[in-house]
Design brief:
eight-stranded mixed sheet; elongated
């Protein structure tokens, strides 16, 4: 403690406490997600003034969402992360800060209120402290961000409340006046979040946490134990458990689905969460973190016949002998279904028409479209464009006669079965799939998970398509983050979707010529590229995706994956998250194939040898350490 500083004791908060809240927002589009006005609206009764600081841009719709729940809106350049946003908000308030008894510095990195704010404010008002946080982080040595020194105990910066006896001092003003620049993520953590508490504690200012980590089984309950926090009355749920690196959360058994069930049980409006996560988290990451695979039974359990949905099936058939099988699958759907069949040749149309007549399905519309190049995707987006218009149908089922000449007979046969069984396996199963859409208004699209039997899709789902997908996403105004390795996508081109969720794709006036080979992307045809962006397209409009499996394929998938993962894991030490990092750093995109693998093996198992033989050992350790720090995720940024 610095004895040269005289610290006034904290005064109890008056019953009519005047509270200032400075809330920082950042959105890559300049929008304001609906969970934000919900959180601020509930804070209104506890605040005399709410100042919202927007880092970056703010759209007209975003401003309209903030104005009813705030007193001031400050839009600033997106520099310095939330910390410099808080500084800008405090500067905006200026000398008027003396009008308040408590200042809360917070941001948009949490959903709430999951539990009421009031009891926490009331309980903390009885605490004779200078500042308090909602949660804290335990001391760590060595500092995981630097590999040396100490990471001091600190209140987490997503919510820190400061009393007058601290913010009306020169020590407070000097801290913000001398705030260092923070160009990067680690700067924000190491220069503010991890030092703020210690800085003021050394000067004699007292602090506490509303939900201290010492009362929980981990050092970071906001990430590892949000269910326990909520059970104890914490009003906030951090967003991080739903966008953090999935193997890290898996290592610590953080089960996102259970967390969300806890939140739903408290009555929080779940569409607010799904809307935000769908727009702002890479789909594959969200799918893993929130455990969004649904394994459904063949017996109807979840379909509400009183809420039937208008369904259309768009079916592209280039193998007429598969017509019967595809129509049989469509017959599994509940209620009446309008069917639109496309094909690309008259002779095929004649064969299909004969089968339709034999089945007494003269009601099915058969269209011949010039879709040889774009195949099923151009037939869908162009040949059935008016069918896809929002408002005409509630759901669109997209199927096609999938048969691959490039794969073995067994692989091709299983690929097709994997698609059709897991979308429309039986009447009861199909009803349960449609029931998902009845229960979740924000569910935009469902499809089978990535196939891994007979096909080497895992680890290479982007293949040669990523560059074109990124360009197409920009062209279609899709800002949802792109999955890193394999996209969450309907590989095989079959899915069930709300037409509204596909608007980013269907509102564009495509032409068949666009599906011709493109010299800029010689190895990335447009059709499969679009296929890989389905989840992102839905997410941009706030619709989330789910994958679906029937019980048979869940059994087949899990047993095969378990054995394959066991074999892969036998080659490297540690937990899967560590094995993955090991291989990523050693691979072709890390330190150079076999040589990199050898260096990393020595570093993990024989560090003294590694130091002796590698003059770049320290550089390698720095890169590896940075990777570990990102995974640990102590910092509060987003």
């Amino acid at each position: 403690m610095d004895s040269s500083i005289t610290v006034s004791p904290p005064a109890p908060l008056p019953r009519d406490c005047r509270r200032l809240i400075v809330y920082v927002v950042w959105d890559r589009r300049g929008d304001v997600e609906p969970y934000i006005p919900h959180a601020l609206g509930a804070l209104r009764e506890h605040a005399a003034r709410i100042v919202v600081v927007v880092n970056g841009e703010l759209s007209d719709d975003g401003r309209a969402a903030l104005e009813p729940v705030s007193d001031d809106i400050l839009v600033r350049e997106n520099v310095g992360f939330d910390i410099w946003g808080h500084k800008a908000g405090l500067d905006q308030v200026g000398a008027a800060i003396a009008d308040y008894d408590e200042v809360v510095l917070t941001n948009d990195t949490w959903f709430g209120p999951v539990r009421p704010y009031g009891p926490v404010f009331e309980r903390m008002a009885q605490q004779d402290v200078h500042f308090w946080g909602m949660t804290d982080h335990a001391r760590e040595e060595p500092n995981p961000f630097t590999g040396k020194g100490v990471l001091h105990y600190h209140l987490q910066s997503f919510w820190i409340a400061i009393r007058r006896a601290m913010f009306d001092t020169e020590a407070w003003r000097a801290y913000w006046r001398e705030l260092p620049v923070m160009p990067g993520y680690f700067d924000a953590v190491l220069k503010h979040e991890a030092v703020f508490t210690e800085h003021f504690a050394r000067r004699g200012y007292t602090h506490t946490a509303a939900f201290p980590s010492s009362q929980y089984p981990t050092d970071h309950p906001a990430l590892f134990n949000p269910d326990l926090l909520i059970a104890d009355g914490c009003p906030l749920l951090k967003r991080r458990p739903f966008f953090h690196y999935p193997p890290f959360l898996d290592r610590h058994a953080v089960i996102g689905r259970e967390i969300l069930q806890t939140v739903e049980g408290q009555g929080y409006p779940m569409p607010l969460i799904w809307h935000d996560l769908a727009r702002n988290v890479a789909p594959q990451t969200l799918n893993a973190d929130a455990a969004m695979l649904e394994v459904l039974p063949d017996i109807e359990e979840e379909y509400d016949h009183a809420r039937s949905m208008r369904i259309a099936a768009a079916v592209n058939i280039v193998h007429p002998d598969m017509t019967e099988a595809l129509l049989d699958r469509i017959d599994h759907l509940p209620g009446d279904v309008d069917v639109f069949v496309t094909t690309n040749e008259r002779r095929r149309a004649d064969a299909i028409r004969a089968i339709l007549q034999e089945r007494g399905r003269g009601d099915i519309e058969l269209r011949v479209v010039p879709s040889k190049v774009g195949k099923h995707m151009s037939a869908f987006l162009i040949g059935c464009r008016e069918v896809l218009e929002p408002g005409r149908y509630d759901l669109i089922v997209k199927l096609h006669s999938k048969r691959s000449a490039k794969r073995s007979y067994n692989a091709s046969r299983y690929f097709t079965r994997h698609q059709l069984d897991n979308l429309l396996g039986s009447p009861g199963y199909a009803a349960n799939v449609i029931g998902l859409f009845q229960r979740e208004p924000g569910l935009g699209v469902v499809f089978p998970p990535t196939i891994h039997t007979g096909v080497a899709t895992m680890g290479s789902g982007w293949g040669t398509y990523r560059k074109r997908a990124e360009a197409l996403a920009r062209d279609l105004r899709i800002a949802v983050p792109i999955d890193e390795i394999t996209p969450l996508a309907p590989f095989g081109g079959m899915w069930i979707a709300r037409p509204e969720a596909l608007r980013r794709l269907t509102e564009r006036d495509w032409s068949y010529e666009e599906f011709e080979p493109d010299g800029r992307f010689p190895d990335a045809p447009l059709g499969p590229t679009i296929e890989r962006l389905i989840s992102n397209a839905a997410g941009e409009l706030g619709f989330h995706a789910r994958t679906v499996l029937n019980m048979e394929h869940a059994e087949l998938s899990h047993t095969a994956l378990e054995f394959k993962l066991d074999q892969l894991s036998s080659t490297t030490p540690g937990y899967p998250v560590e094995q993955i990092q090991f291989l990523h750093r050693a691979g072709p995109t890390g330190h150079g194939g076999a040589a990199g693998l050898a260096r990393m093996y020595l570093q993990l198992n024989h560090p003294s040898v590694a130091r002796a033989i590698s003059p770049v050992y320290q550089a390698v350790r720095t890169v590896a350490g940075a990777g570990r720090r990102v995974v640990k995720g102590i910092g509060d940024r987003r």
